[in-house]
Amino acid sequence: MGLILRLSIRNLLRQKKRNMFLGIGIAFGMMILVIANSFSTGMVDVLIQDVVSNAFGHLVVSGTPGNSFYAVIRDKERIEGVIREVIPPEDIVLITENLGVMGTAIGNGESDNVFVVGVTTDTEEEKEAFFTDFFTLVEGDFADFTSYDYEYPVIISQEMGRSLNVGLHDVIRLRVPMVTGQIQAVRLTVIAIANANNSFMNIVLFLDGGRVKELLGYRPWESAALQVTLRDPKRTAAHYADLIHQQLHPELLYVAGEIGGQTAQILAFQNNLEAKETVQDTIVITTGDLETALASNGVMMSENLAQRLKLQPGDQFTFTYETKFREMYSEQFTINAIFQSDSHLGDEVVFVNEERIHTVYNRYLPLDTKSASITADSVLYSILATEWKLLERNANAQEMMKQMRDERRIRTTQTKFQVMTMYEGASQILQLEEALNLITILAVLVLFFIILIGVMNTLRMTVRERTREIGTVRAIGMQKRDVRRMFMYETLVLTTLSCMAGVLIGIIVMRVLGTIEFDTNSVLSIILKNKRLFFKLNPAAMLSNFILIMCMAGVTAYFPARRAARLSAVEALRHYE
Amino acid sequence: MSVISVKRVERDYPLGKTTVHALRGVDLEIPEGSFFSIIGPSGSGKTTLLNIIGCIDNPTAGTVSIDGEETTKLNDKQITDLRLHKLGFIFQNFNLIPVLNVWENVEFPLLLMKTHRKKEIKARVEKLIAAVGLEQHAHHKPAELSGGQRQRVAIARALVTNPKIILADEPTANLDSETSHSILKLMRDLNETEKTTFVFSTHDPDVLKYAKSIVQIKDGKLVHAEEEVI
Asked: How many CB atoms are closer than 10 A to CB B206?
């Protein structure tokens, strides 16, 4: 050990009582800092891990039809394929359908707003693991969850049972909005009463995912959002979200089918001014009204096709095509205008405003989406509608909210796809953690400021008491910087040891506090995990706080130490207390 | 050849509105290997002269050379280095470092030098502790030693770097006469064996019989010099 450090440690031990009191002060401050920090990290962890990630996964791909509020992915397999193509299997824990909806539940003379969640698991083991990890069973049997002996088997919490005044095997009437916009009313049977490990989940009614899809009007190949649980979300979520976003680039909206036995294809132009002007400049209308044809339900047909079908503006025709899911679908259109066939679109095209076709297209996805005759070098290519709109990725929840607001202003029926991670979606929770940590650190800085004033005074007193010693070591040949270092080391060693003690005491206190059970249903219960306070040590934050405290201690010690170093040897030797 | 050369050194101290002239044009040449005593009554300027020779105080006027190096031209770091390498100090109040034991106090200047290997340090400290007769007390703290023992530690500490000069300001002032004699005898022996120049101040006539050369100082001026008393 270096001479200066050895001297510093010996000098620290010389004033045991005084330094012990100072050390207790610093350790206390550090303990508060560790506890507060671990509490906020733990709280955010509970909110993010148990609430946000359970509700939304680490990464979500969602589709929203037009300006609606519900999420529908019409071709679940395709989107899941993109996800699986981008993320290596070893990084995926689970891909699940995010099936959730707000509704009203009516029990025995009581009603409440509830959140209905569909549980989708691929295997029995997954289901078993979900039940045992997520719930504490009070009564009933999880095995009945998928039983057809009951109408819509449901798991509810004790709290929900009390609130709706229902018990095991009682019936709950539920009203929820379907994806079609209608209200669905069903009878649910309570097959288990179980408390979720996070009380936030106690307002949730858990149903089998398949039945929730049926209930909400999703068809088997459809889903709400797809949520991915990743093995290492912090490191990989944003990267994979970006890659998925790239892969979700939409194709042209194109439907191949037939009209009255004639092959035909539908292409759509975007419903905006620029697109309409381009159509106006490019397409030559032979009969009919261009203005009506450009309107949101506008339909134009190529001259050759119209002649073959003997159709005029104002006539109706039925377009029939095979959907991706092997059923035929027919849609009726009314012609507004007929355009010259030698234009850029080909001679068997029905050219429509995108608003006329999105709803049909999304609901009945065509089998053939690839063989459009139009090529990318066509003038019209850039104004053609795509199968969906891919929303830009957002850095945080504020950007996401702004994007949502901006999107809502545009009336459309086009589906909007979005890829987000929980770190963006829950950025406000992460900000909450930052805010809590900031408040903690400010409070503790004030505490440390007071403690370190004590350190400074003690050091000044020490310098005064040891003036003759300083004179002696200077006379013998100790350099000024070594004298300064000796006093600095004393403070820094004391601070380091005290901080370590503070961390240790903090851990013990957290362990003790973590054993206390809080039986509360108040809003505070959201931050409890298994009814207990949850602390999570944050080594990075602890290290940065420690560095900050060391810097503060260093600055406080510097001035008395410099004063000691600057003492004249002869004056110091002459000094008498 | 002079190891210490003091030329026309003056030292004034401001005291309120007046100035105290502690040294008034002192000229002194001390040859290498001397056992040199500066005598004089209290307040005569003995300590001031020793402090200036020891480079822990600066003269108001005049020059001081130590081993041919003019100290007034050096900066603080160079002066500190000079003190560490060429000078040893023995103080009236011993001035040992209380948190270090005898061994550690003696090795302290060597550790500051950072030039010696562990083995060398050990050998040198061991030899000096033996020379001052404190082998049995090597691990005692200063507070556990008598005055004489403490001064022996101080002597060992002063000698450990093998300095050219040892300055001792009234080294026996806080010791009884028997211990004083043994300390002076020890210093004298070390002067002879180690060939180190000893300069010490005293106002005790008993001490003088050990000195080889004596100068008397009165009111900041050298008044009388006597060579080879013994």
From this structure: 12
CA nearest B113 in A: which residue? A477
Q: Are strands A153-156 and A183-196 parallel, antiparallel or unpaired?
A: parallel
Pairwise CA distance, residues A176 & A193, whole Å: 21
pTM value > 0.95: no
Is A1 in the B-facing interface, judged by CB distances under 8 Å? no
In A, minimum Cα distance to B89 occurs at A476
What is the count of residue pairs from A and B with beta carbons less than 8 Å apart?
Answer: 65
CATH 3.40.50.300 fits B2-226, yes or no: yes
Whether B157 has its CB under 8 Å from any CB of chain A: the answer is: yes
Length of chain B: 230
Which of B204, B230, B189, B217 lies closest to B44, judged by CA?
B217
Q: Is there a contact between B84 and A573 if contact means CB atoms under 8 Å apart?
A: no
CA angle, B177 as apex, B172 and B182 as ends, to 5°?
A: 70
Segments making up each domain of chain B, as ranges: 2-226
B229 and chain A in contact, CB less than 8 A: no
A235 contact partners, CB below 8 Å, separation of at least 6: none
Cβ–Cβ gap A469/B98 under 8 Å: yes
Instruction: Tell whether B89 lies on the interface with A, counting CB pairs under 8 A.
Output: yes
Per-residue pLDDT of chain A (577 residues; tens, 9 = 90+): 688 998 999 998 888 888 898 899 889 988 988 888 888 888 877 777 666 666 667 888 999 888 877 788 888 889 999 999 999 999 988 888 888 888 899 999 888 888 888 887 777 777 777 777 778 888 888 888 888 888 889 999 888 899 899 999 999 999 988 887 788 899 999 999 988 766 667 788 898 888 888 888 888 888 888 988 888 888 899 999 999 999 999 988 989 999 988 899 999 999 999 999 998 888 888 999 888 999 988 999 999 999 999 999 999 999 999 998 878 999 999 999 999 876 567 778 899 999 999 888 888 889 877 777 777 778 888 899 999 999 999 888 788 888 888 888 888 888 999 998 888 877 777 777 778 778 877 877 787 788 778 888 888 888 888 898 999 999 999 999 999 999 999 999 999 999 999 999 999 999 999 888 877 666 666 667 777 888 888 888 889 888 988 998 898 889 999 999 998 888 888 776 4
**Contact state of A479 with B77 under an 8 Å Cβ cutoff:** yes
Q: ipTM score here? A: 0.91
The C-alpha of B83 sits at a distance from chain A's nearest C-alpha, in angstroms, of 6
The Cα of A28 is separated from the nearest Cα of chain B by a number of Å equal to 29
Helices A16-45 and A427-465 meet at what angle, rounded to 10? 180
